[in-house]
TrEMBL record:
Transmembrane is among the record's keywords: no
Bilayer-spanning residue ranges: none
Record family assignment: Belongs to the 4-hydroxybenzoyl-CoA thioesterase family.
InterPro entries: 4-hydroxybenzoyl-CoA_TE, HotDog_dom_sf
Biological source species: Photobacterium aphoticum
Keyword Lipid metabolism (UniProt): no
Protein name from the UniProt record: 4-hydroxybenzoyl-CoA thioesterase
Domain of life, source organism: Bacteria
Molecular function in Gene Ontology: fatty acyl-CoA hydrolase activity
Keyword list, A-Z: Hydrolase
């Protein structure tokens, strides 16, 4: 039996001067912007970006996150950010790894968790909406075919 493919996306970017703290390394809060860009590309793969989420009647706030800073990232440094969808039935969990784009060394890892909240009701969903899980299922069906 073949392994199930991973639903992942990656972006390559160069850290900017304004990303850095006075010591010349990326400020810890800016890692979330890097995660967000990779997550945006990942959700585009599903045709379920933030505008699509809203149009389907849901918002997806982040309810939990974690970052492990493995190595400092200096400004003007090329990085590769990989986002992988690891949970989707009851919540949206995306795991991230930031690599040095030149050497491949792992610099940071982390995750974000989001849940669906109905726009009209304001209530959190305890399972992911069918509109989302259908898109994930369709992506896996295409990837395996």
């Amino acid at each position: 039996m073949a392994n199930k493919p991973e639903l992942r996306a990656e972006v390559t970017m160069v850290t900017a001067f304004q990303d850095a703290d006075p010591m010349g390394v990326v400020y810890h809060g800016n890692y979330f912007r890097f995660f967000e860009e990779a997550r945006r590309v990942l959700m585009d793969k599903l045709s379920y970006n933030y505008r699509d989420m809203q149009a389907s009647g849901f918002v997806w706030p982040i309810i939990d996150t974690r970052v492990k800073y493995v190595k400092p990232i200096p400004f003007n440094h090329e990085i590769r950010v990989v986002a992988t969808l690891t949970e989707w039935e009851n919540r949206l969990k995306v795991e991230y790894v930031i690599f040095d784009a030149q050497t491949g060394a792992r610099m940071t890892k982390g995750y974000t968790m989001q849940v669906a909240v109905g726009i009209e009701s304001g209530e959190m969903c305890f399972v992911s909406p069918k509109v989302f899980t259908d898109k994930v299922d369709a992506w896996f069906a295409d990837a395996i075919a």
